[in-house]
Design brief:
The chain is an alpha/beta fold and 324 residues long. The protein contains 17 helices and 9 strands. 47% of the residues lie in helices and 10% in strands. It is globular, with a radius of gyration of 20 Å. Bound molecules: iron/sulfur cluster.
Length: 324
């Protein structure tokens, strides 16, 4: 079982309640099972008796996790509570026990085709090609990250192979990736192609801007908690003239409404709605204050559940700062 490779996290988290306040789902359900301790206790029961893997409540609890990794990032010993959930999801899938909704979603995610268009020496993977005039554009869907976090390892590899073929055929040497989950997935997957986040590229290109706007930056789970707090998005926004203020009441919580789980809203729309409502409550004036997120997923969920939310992506903020 994959969870047997995570004994240190099981042993550390099952009796620890130190980071309970940082679990986004626990903060809206108020269930102990939706915290790293609750999940580690369940996983320990599965480890001791594999029969417990058949328990549908246990399985549902593992898929309900938002995988923000805020708990791991702020844990003094960085115990890999997020890796533990990913491991048990793999065990669930390998045992053929994934819930029907998860299996159906996985099938949909497998059916992708990638295409490359345009001209340029770089290849851009994102939603705002107008910011990258010297780049080709690759499109087609999720490159395999969503299947990976759902526990479908082989299917994820198959989708990635399709993506990789399209990237290699483009003959570009740099791949610029906008969505943080895709960046996290792709960053170490190519031998001779450099993968960078879109904020790193735009920062190095420089932004000619006159804006002095105040804005709140919502940290991305993947750029902060999975990638050692990548500084480029904040530096880019500051270089574009934005005066950044702290969002919410602390700098530890995840406000990215399930970004870590990539397809959270597709499986748990009611919980995603609650996560979005919590972010709304934490904001001072969400209809008028400018809120900026690196994740298109986060923006789309915040807007879906409250169109009045004044939230834009980092790329949109750059375009806005340029006066477009
Ligand atoms: S991640 Fe760290 S702080 Fe959180 S439950 Fe595990 S050991 Fe405790």
């Amino acid at each position: 079982m994959n969870i047997k490779k995570c004994i240190d996290a099981i042993n550390a988290c099952r009796f620890c309640f130190m980071c309970r306040h940082l679990d986004p789902v626990g903060n809206v359900t108020f269930n102990e099972s939706d915290t790293p301790r609750g999940r580690a206790l369940i996983i320990d029961k599965i480890r001791m008796d594999r029969e417990n893997l058949n328990n549908q409540d246990f399985i549902n609890t593992m898929y309900k996790s938002a995988l923000s990794a805020a708990n791991r990032y702020h844990c003094v010993s960085h115990y890999d509570e997020a890796g533990l959930v990913l491991a048990v999801r793999k065990d669930i899938v390998e045992a053929g026990l994934a819930p029907e909704a998860v299996k159906k979603l996985a099938k949909e995610l497998e059916h992708v085709d990638f295409k490359v268009e345009g001209k340029g020496s770089n290849l851009y993977f994102g939603e705002m090609p107008e910011l990258y005039p010297d780049s080709k554009l690759i499109s087609g869907g999720d490159p395999g990250k969503a299947l990976e976090v759902l526990g479908f390892t082989n299917e994820s590899k198959n989708v990635f192979e399709k993506f990789k073929k399209a990237v290699i055929n483009s003959k570009c040497e740099t791949l610029i990736v906008a969505e943080p989950s895709s960046y996290d997935f792709l960053k170490n997957k190519f031998d001779n192609i450099k993968v960078i986040h879109s904020s790193e590229y735009l920062l190095s290109a420089g932004v000619n801007s006159q804006t002095q706007s105040k804005a709140y930056y919502l940290d991305s789970d993947y750029l902060k908690n999975y990638n050692d707090n990548l500084k480029a998005p904040r530096e880019l926004l500051e270089s574009a003239g934005y005066k950044l203020a702290m969002f919410g009441t602390n700098q530890e919580e995840s406000y990215s409404v399930g970004e870590g789980a990539v397809v959270y809203d597709k499986l748990y729309p009611e919980l995603a709605k609650k996560l979005a409502e919590r972010v709304w409550e934490q904001a001072d004036n969400p209809e008028t204050d400018l809120i900026i997120t690196a994740s298109s997923y986060t923006k789309s969920i915040l807007k879906k559940y409250n169109p009045a939310f004044n939230v834009i992506t980092v790329e949109e903020a750059v375009l806005k700062a340029k006066g477009n």
